[in-house]
Amino acid sequence: MSNVVSVKRFKQFPQLMWILLFGSFITRGSYYMVWPFLAVILYEKFALSATNVGLILSSAAVISVFVSFVGSALSDRIGRHQLMYASGVLYIISFSLLAQVDSITGYALVITLCSIATALWRPLTSALIGDIIDDKTTRELAMQSLYFVVNVGCAVGPMLGLWMGLTGEQSSFYITAGAFAFLLALLWCGFHQHNKLANENELTANQELTKLTADNREIDSVDIQCQAKVKAKSAEGNQIINVLVADKLLQCLIFANILCMFIYAQMDSSLIQYLTRAEVPDLLQLISSMIFTNALVIISTQFLLLKLMANLSLVSRIQIGLVLLMCSQIWLAVNPLTLFWGWIGAIVVMSLAETILFPTMNVHIDRLAPDHLRGAYFGAASFYEFGYAIAPLGGGIILDQLGGPWLFFITAALTLIVMYLYSTLDKMPRPDFTNVLAVQKRLSE
């Protein structure tokens, strides 16, 4: 019975959602074919220390976090479509440049552009799903599906790159640029078709409204116009900030997830630097295998875990994921450098944690966000990326000063702090969104 329901839910996806899923697969696959090896390229080309590599990656990511918040909030006012086109073009330009630069300064600038494009794209995609799918259950399935296909791309990309001999090759960044050019063409078609269908539905609704009685027609027309204005007019900038400042639960959640992202991001940056500098055997094969394992575990367990945890609250699911994340960090700390399958085993545990945590975080924000502030809330959630942003620098400093084992013991301890913060969420005050929407309605009149 549950399988039938799932099939019905999938059939409710609009065409634009399927385009997003396919586009996410090809772009993530090409992205992870080349991006994880950037730290290796910087080390081998310029012999930079772990701290210096971390500084380049962290500086770019910090800038992108601020851009992401502003861009996502603006998307409530000027539309998702335009900003998605802009971030897609920025992807194409930045990855094309990344295939050509040959100086440390050039890498720093272009990596910043890449990070900005990525930070804009992710929350816009999540907010767009909320715009095009009204049913809550179907929307959550769509977010889970998006996360699933992203990881299918992550699984295929590194292994395909290794098979094609592209890992560590600078020219392979052109592949990612080409993938985003193709996605933009698909999105243009999808947006055009979606808008056409929306206009047809609106016309049908208007025709039905004309059948109302003469006494009710004028009143209903005024109400409908007011509702349209409220929906079309997004909250003013100051009002958005006031709401976010008043929402203490959101702030606690953001801080907890900043720490969570800092912990998880060590796999993408510091772990690779640790293995590179330790000169472990078969380095490129090990890196590709870890990325492949990470994605494969997510692909094979995501919907199974979703079904097993269906009766648990979102916070309970996240706490289970955090326990697994802490165990993976301890494993990474104690694993011998030359034990290939030990590294893979630790990644399996970390991947199970990620499978539970990451899609649940998006669903959590979607449930917390009022409809008229969805873009602003997903933009605020992009501050999670601060953890990801400072991870290369923080991890690099710890690597240079204390070494790899201490880095992962520290991240294991940080997981305990995240678990405590999640346990306090229910006690955090939230603003009165009814009053906020009433103010917007008065403004629109």
From TrEMBL:
Membrane-protein topology? Multi-pass membrane protein
Major facilitator superfamily (MFS) profile domain boundaries: 16-430
Q: Does the keyword Repeat apply?
A: no
Primary site of residence: membrane
- According to its record, what are the GO cellular component terms? plasma membrane
Domain of life of the organism encoding this protein = Bacteria
| Keyword match NAD | no
Q: Where in the cell is it found?
A: Cell membrane
Which spans are transmembrane here?
16-34, 46-71, 83-101, 107-124, 145-166, 172-191, 249-267, 287-306, 318-334, 340-363, 375-399, 405-422
Q: Which UniProt keywords apply?
A: Cell membrane, Membrane, Transmembrane, Transmembrane helix, Transport
What is a GO molecular function of this protein? transmembrane transporter activity
Q: What is this protein called?
A: Major facilitator superfamily MFS_1
